[in-house]
User: Fold Fimbria/pilus periplasmic chaperone from Pseudomonas emilianonis.
Amino acid sequence: MKTIARLALACCAVGGFSLLASSAHAGVIIYGTRVIYPADRQEVVVRLENKGNRPALVQTWLDAGDVRSTPATAQTPFSLAPPIFRIEPHQQQAVRLRYAGESAPGDRERLYWLNVLEVPPLAADAAQNNQIELAFRSRLRVFLRPQALPYPVSSAPAKLQWQLVRHGQGFALQATNPTPYHISLTSVDLLSDGKRFSKAPNKAANDSLLMPAGDVKRFVLPLLRERPSGTPQVEFTTVSDFGARVRHSAGLTPASTQ
Assistant:
């Protein structure tokens, strides 16, 4: 178990999601792009499958947002069963998540991360062929969702508030999330006079398009240098509970006069 924990820490140190080598590839896949945990459920099941041709040793744990977490350091109100297991080639494994907190928060979603660390077995000829076998770690968002929120999650994207604000020598779209849900964005554009102005590309791994409940973010529009006339529209794409991408359109709020 200490060996697996050290491998997990090594994965974190180089940035987190997957480590790749020419002689290795991840064989274990996770079904789904996110986990929704309704607070009134006793447990939620996440399914994994080993698509590779070799057995894999897998360790799972949850963290509260620290990409450098390990099973020994992460602290969350969840339990996982089983935490360590072996998956034979082309076989599946169910991992059961259980909320172990005293009471779930009632006013908004909370975000946690499910870590899945795959340790492939060492090939018999790996040393002779100078091959390196590396561990692969995947992180999946887990949304703990209270049961008494005022409206369904599908209504949340339409409630985002958009303002066009000054940013340096140009402009940016400022988004405010007044909802109790986390909203996952994949694209943000401003349409004006038949032209499309897209947000600047992410420059860092932590430059996230995820907007937690109550969050405010600015998306720089590098090609927009003059305030547009007429009635500009914001077009943005969100990710649903099922991983589907959904397109939305919204106007700017009246306060957008900065």
Remarks:
- The two ends are 56 Å apart (CA to CA).
- Residues 1-24 have pLDDT under 50 and may be disordered.
- DSSP finds one helix and 17 strands in the chain.
